[in-house]
Amino acid sequence: MNIQRPFSSAFASFKNYCESTQKVAKSIVVSFCAFRNDPDFFQKVFQVAFAVLQLIIIRSPGVRDLSRLSFVLKTANMHDFYRFIQQPRQWFFPVKAETIKENRVLEDLIKYIQNRDNEVEVKIPELNPFDTREEGAAIQLSELDQLEIKERGEPEVQDKLNENDHSDVRKLVKKVLGQLLSTMASEDHAYRNFDEFKNALQVRLNKNLSEDLDLTDLQVTPQWIRRTPFIERIINLSWFIVDIGCIGLYFQEWRLLDTAKWAAHMGQYSAFRGVKDHHLAHWVVGLVSSTFAIKLVEMTRRLQDDALTVEERRHTRWNWVTALGELVFFGTTYMDMMGQIKVNHAYLHCFAIVAKSLGLLSIVTRPKHQFFQKPVRVA
Amino acid sequence: MVYITERVRNAFDNFYTGCTGASERLKRGVLAIGQEGSRILYDIYSLDGFEKWSKVLIADLKMASLIPKLNGIFAECLKTLEAQKDLYYATQIINSMRSFIDPTGKNFRCPGFSKVLIAIGSVFETGSFLQKYKVMSFPACSAFAQELGSMRMSLFGRPDIRFDNIPVFNSFCDKPKDFFIFWASFWDVKTWVIERVYSEEASSSWESYFKLAGNMGKMLLIGGSRWLGAGWPLAIVDVATQNASLIAFIIKRHVDREKKFYASAA
């Protein structure tokens, strides 16, 4: 009896140990696989590996055998070249979860349902009175709306809000809209237009209501769309130009495009005389540096001026840090290329390691997008 | 006079209606092509998609290089694509390990015989990548492969055949991954045939046909490489195989995405 007890406890602790090890192993494999399949993460890992390898080669010239490996690692940069295949979907399917202002849609929807209520009574199934989480969320939303409305100065919606705070309709619609947006974000769904989005919302709402609701007459207003700030549009445009420049650079490296010949040809004309002295690589690196500089300024402005949710603030901070890292790396590389400063290449690789590692960390710590959060301005 | 004016007006009306209808049809056509095309491109945007895409480019450019005027033009591009393919293959082991865990990430599972074979092959591929790019060396494995390759045996009444002269099995000494890929493809083809013969609910989707073509192509490329030689027959089979695999991949991604999309709407 006395012998059995220590054995059984040892067996139980061994079993626990095995189970926890198994759990950790599974989660490691699952997250490794997710990161491996993320093209950005994959690219950054090999960029860091490339820079580390270059440092090793500089410090210990005896390992030059690894130059073939460094060529292979460098090919991960091709993902910049492949980025263009993502673009067309954004033109044809512009309605994504990130582009929708959920609070505005919610207000318009509630307004629409209430106007409709005057004609037909919509039956809302009874909600669980003990579900305090939902109640809390509704109160939070009301505060959020009031804050937003104060900023925007929309008295009409303010009146509506006061009338309908904590109503069952609000809770139900918010829940359904939140579910739809979460699914859109997690499954990477996008709609051709807002009519399709309204249809999807209608189907989901009708599942929760005991009577059919028709959203055909619900007016889609421009306020539903989260406008991209002007600076961000400039940044996106410069990334688009950089992508095209990368295509040119790759074609140049593959000896399929002779940019020097084209530059010399254009330089014959007096208006384009300066083109002869320029290199495509300089232009691309210069543009990348200035884009990161603009991004850094924009992120600083957002952190200072904008009312941001907790998640947005965290994301913006990471963007600020990565933009700074990349600016230091690309800015130094550009000035070195242009002969304005002379930098030891070992330092450039060190800057690359820091910048890309920060990028990796930002991907790893990227939070899952939460809807209906409360934006707060820094005092 | 009135009659002529009426006819001219009718002609203008018809012309206007025709133009409007044509522009409407054109707009619809551009939208349909653009939407489907953009979805296809988006479905490729993943590591597995890049892998298949680079294999397709390699096969297509290799075939184009057989045209005397284009010979050597794509050499640099092919070098980059081959290196990129090697990088994807070397990290494939992570995906293979993932296939032993269920989608919820909580329980282990057996992913099926062909996936197990692919997983074993991807372990060898990582090793071969490290050896090829001189990161690590595996002298014992190389010595074993050499020994095995030079082993002589009698087969089908033919005496003194070297092991590395036996089709399919020779790949075990040279590229072990190919050996496992051959048997994984063979298993998939066998499963497809058995499903057709014994099951009435067998999938007859385009994806299954393209996947079959891809699997048969892989078997032919690995098992019949000597017979195909290095010229046009090999290039054509390679192009057909890689393109079929890419199309099957795109269809699968597209169908999966649509399923999730409609499941979320329903």
Task: Give keywords.
heterodimer; A: mainly alpha; two-stranded antiparallel sheet; 1% strand; B: 266 residues; mainly alpha; 2 strands; 3% strand; elongated
In short:
The complex is a heterodimer of chains A (379) and B (266). By secondary structure, chain A is an all-alpha fold.
Q: What's the layout of helices and strands?
A:
The complex is a heterodimer of chains A (379) and B (266).
Chain A (H helix, E strand, L loop, with lengths): L3 H33 L2 H21 L7 H8 L3 H5 L4 H6 L2 E2 L5 H16 L14 H21 L2 H10 L3 H20 L2 E2 L2 H15 L21 H24 L5 H9 L12 H26 L4 H28 L7 H20 L15
Antiparallel strand pairs in A: 1-2
Helix pairs in contact in A: 2-3, 2-15, 6-9, 7-8, 7-9, 9-10, 11-13, 13-14, 14-15
Chain B lengths: L1 H43 L2 H19 L9 H16 L1 H7 L14 H20 L6 H11 L2 E4 L2 E5 L7 H5 L1 H23 L7 H18 L1 H4 L3 H34 L1
Antiparallel strand pairs in B: 1-2
Helix pairs in contact in B: 1-11, 2-3, 2-11, 3-5, 4-5, 5-8, 8-9, 9-11
How helix-rich are the residues of chain B, as a percent range? over 70%
In oligomeric terms, what are we looking at? heterodimer
List low-confidence stretches of chain A: 126-144, 149-164
From N to C, what is the helix and strand string of chain A?
HHHHHEHHHHEHHHHHH
Terminal Cα span of chain B: 63 Å
Q: Give the domain tally of chain A.
A: 2
Indicate the structural class of chain B.
Answer: mainly alpha
Give a verbal description of the structure:
The complex is a heterodimer of chains A (379) and B (266). By secondary structure, chain A is mostly helical. Chain A has helices at residues 4-36, 39-59, 67-74, 78-82, 87-92, 102-117, 132-152, 155-164, 168-187, 194-208, 230-253, 259-267, 280-305, 310-337, 345-364; strands at residues 95-96, 190-191. Chain A has 2 domains: 47-91 and 227-364; 97-224, no CATH class. Chain A has a two-stranded antiparallel sheet. In chain A, helix 14 (310-337) packs antiparallel against helix 15 (345-364). The longest helix of chain A is centred in the first third of the chain and has 33 residues, at 4-36. By secondary structure, chain B is mostly helical. Helix content of chain B is 75%, strand content 3%. In chain B, helix 9 packs antiparallel against helix 11 (232-265). The model of chain B has no long low-confidence stretch (mean pLDDT 88). Chains A and B meet through helix 1, helix 2, helix 3, helix 4 and helix 5 of A and helix 1, helix 2, helix 3, helix 4 and helix 11 of B.
